[in-house]
Amino acid sequence: MRRSVSCRIEADVVEPTDLVLSVALAAGARLEAESLVVTLGDTEVGCREVIADHGTRLHIVDGAGPGRLVVTYAATATGDGTPAPVADIDPVRYLRPSRYCESDRLTGFARDQFRGLHGAELVRSVSSWVGQRVAYVSGSSRPTDGAVATLLAREGVCRDFAHLVTALLRACDVPARLVSVYAPGLHPMDFHAVTEALVDGRWLVVDATCLAPRSSLLRIATGRDAADTAFLTSTGTTLELVSLDVSATTEGDLPDDDIGRDVVLA
Question: How many domains is the chain built from?
Fold first, then answer.
């Protein structure tokens, strides 16, 4: 499957700041073409690449600003790439509570709600439960909201769905983590967030929003929660996001997505 993805970020930087971009396809994608250009005003600025866990590629811009920052990324990927390996630390790291996935606060609820379920059946049940009880409402959540806030509000965006699914799975002793992705077919188009659950030695993709076929997704960043997968991070000062445009398409028709089928993300 050939997929083309792109993003354009514009932001106003008031004072010099260090920036971390997480918009490039993760290492392991079968790239046919790729470009990343960062400009400040009329000047192209350099960035250095750092490889984080699970092939996440971070691009760091040191001391950018002041001025209008423009980030333009584009890539074409072919094939499915290599399935995500399971590291020895993964079952430990991704069972622990984290900033936005407060699984320790949801343990009693989760184990009662999903009593008697295990493995892939448990994963599908958690995803379906969240998908049926949480409404997708653009702009309904705050950047600081975690899984507990989403459970109480019963509404959110993709990161909120993913945080709640991840927290409930961890509360049921299933290692789970958050993945930011490009998602062909997604509407409204944006960066997307899904969950990966570790079942029988494989990382299975879980998307309670059902807004895009899982087999078309392309991995960007992987981590404990959104704190590890933000597309833009600034340190030293704040910046104002002016616009964000994301595109993700496939060559030909989008694949079907049977929610009862296990899907592994490359």
Answer: 2
